[in-house]
Amino acid sequence: MIFDEQPATRQELYDRIRQSSLDSVILEEMVRSGFWPAKSDKPDDPADEIHRRTELQNELNELRRQHARVRDEAELLRDIRRERLRASREKQKETRERRERERAERAANWKTRQAREITYLGPGVSAGLNHVESDEAKLRDAGLPQLGDAASIAAAMGIRVGELRFLAFSRDVSRVSHYETFRVAKKSGGTRTIRAPRPRLKAAQRWILEHVLDRVPVHEAAHGFRRGRSVRTNAEPHVNQAIVVNLDLADFFPTVRYPRVKGMFQWLGYSEAAATILGLLCTAAETNPVVLDGVTYHVAADPVRRLPQGAPTSPGVTNVLCQRLDRRLTKAAQDYGFVYTRYADDLTFSTANRDADVGKLLRRVRYLVQKDGFEVHPTKTRVLRRSRRQEVTGVVVNERPTIARATLKRFRAVLYQIERDGPEGKFWGAPGGPVLDQVMGFANYVYMVDPQKGTPLRERAQALVERYGKPKPQPKPKSPQAKPAQGEAKPKDLVSQLARLGELHEQGLLSDEEFKAAKRRLLDDSEDEPPKDPPSEGAKKPWWKLW
Hints:
By secondary structure, the protein is an alpha+beta fold. Helix content is 50%, strand content 11%. Strands 7-8-4-9 form a four-stranded antiparallel β-sheet. A hairpin with a 2-residue loop joins strand 7 and strand 8 (346-351). It is elongated, with a radius of gyration of 43 Å.
């Protein structure tokens, strides 16, 4: 052991002597002071002997220390255990630090991945989210947007991937519901459950309808919810026929389940991941609200997701899915000498042959409908011959497309009452609604079906709108047919009126433009929120004078 510097203290000198030997320290000091060469070529150099003796002495001392420890086995075991414990603790510390770094890296990577893709959307629906390969050629030929994964769908809709995950996630219990559920009265009696999507989900569904579903060609027999088609175009093929047959498909929208919707999007060319997300956005499970500890939970009454009645995508999905059914029913109608059209769930057949075998046609139709997964409503099949009034989706078709005389007579009576006494206390359609919008919408509907009869009615309705301007909202009377479903909140007047407009539009009584205009005026009225008016004089009149 060689020291380059002179010891500063006496204790440091003693430590050096203890580590080597006195001769070695004296030799190092003589070399450092220049009294002895550091290296010498002389044989039997005393310096070499001193260094060698010092090394041997150190080795001997180390052997003595080891021998002393071996003699005390208990102390040796304790040393070994202490050493192992120290090494183990150091290794544990390194492992903890390494795992913490890995956990932080995984968290950062997962956060980044969650912002780019969706890997889980609930039990039973997440298996194909890692398959993102679409049939690009098929989508390009069909003019459909190229959507392969969650990031492309979210970017196309103008939302974040996290929001897309929130809208499409499927769960059995949730504190959030994307739908507003209420019931409205049917024209034929009873109530219909409407599940209207909330704004964010509705915007996503409208994007799917506009950019995907509306671009898919459907069968020519389909007239419902298509641009350029209406209840009039649905009724025109059945004008002046000897026999008109009307059928209704039971539970039309709820019959279509999520796997079928997902398969439809895959058939269009989309990847399984994109088809899963689009299918979940277009379907929903029926839920019941349950209040627990003051918190409302939406619990799935039926885990199967179905097309909701009230979503803007449901009619477009059924039009695409029913192409095969429309082809088969068209072929069956031609085989028996009939003409076939479909407006949503309303099937209509007609023929000029008064002796046509209607029974065989109905048996064939029921078989084909069941084969395609639907059911014919058992109480809504009507066979109308020329001797009675023949109607197709509310349009009389005996001689030409027109509206029933009794309906027009009642409508003229309402117009007369408004012209004479004003709009207070009057209504057409849903009680309590904006009567001027109602009469204007129905006049436009009559004009669309029968311009000859609709022109004077529309002029009178327009004159009333110009005369009285924006109407005040009327108090809505209680109606036993508009009760909310069990466990649901009672719908507000605005919600009921919007639902009624949607029902009229769905039935073809309002065109797209009329529906949008009426909805816009209704929303404008709701923003004013005037104080409640006292009962008008018209409301005190006997019911037979309200007409």
